[in-house]
Amino acid sequence: MTDTIFVSGLSIHARHGVMDHETEVGQRFVIDLELYTDLSEPSRSDRLADTVSYAEVVATTTAAFKNTNYKLLERAAGAVADAILSHFPRIRAVKITVHKPHAPIAAIFDDVGIMLTRSRHP
């Protein structure tokens, strides 16, 4: 059985992109996370030590996403996945969606972004 912890709509200002103004000024990105883990122990114990801290996940995600400027969202999301899997041994897999609502595209659109899923290798 796999349970899920999620964080939706995490807004982060960062400087990712291939165009000069994206790396100079930056823009808002929105991140959604799904963290797959076993929550049977904390659902009985009611102890934070038995689960994954949402606050720590948000801090780790923010640092991994902001600390380096990437050209591609795929790489930025990969950095977040790597950081989460390395910092939280209880998490078996992570699904990350990165929205780039102000992408420099000559079109009217509601949303654009990427979604990736990474898991631990046994």
TrEMBL record:
Pfam families, A to Z: FolB (PF02152)
Domain (Dihydroneopterin aldolase/epimerase) ranges: 5-118
Domain of life the protein comes from: Bacteria
GO biological process, one term: tetrahydrofolate biosynthetic process
E.C. code: 4.1.2.25
Keywords: Folate biosynthesis, Lyase
The protein's annotated pathway: Cofactor biosynthesis; tetrahydrofolate biosynthesis; 2-amino-4-hydroxy-6-hydroxymethyl-7,8-dihydropteridine diphosphate from 7,8-dihydroneopterin triphosphate: step 3/4
GO cellular component, one term: cytoplasm
SMART domains: FolB
Catalytic activity: 7,8-dihydroneopterin = 6-hydroxymethyl-7,8-dihydropterin + glycolaldehyde
Annotated GO MF terms: dihydroneopterin aldolase activity
Similarity field: Belongs to the DHNA family.
Reported function: Catalyzes the conversion of 7,8-dihydroneopterin to 6-hydroxymethyl-7,8-dihydropterin.
Name of the protein in its database record: 7,8-dihydroneopterin aldolase
Organism: Bradyrhizobium shewense
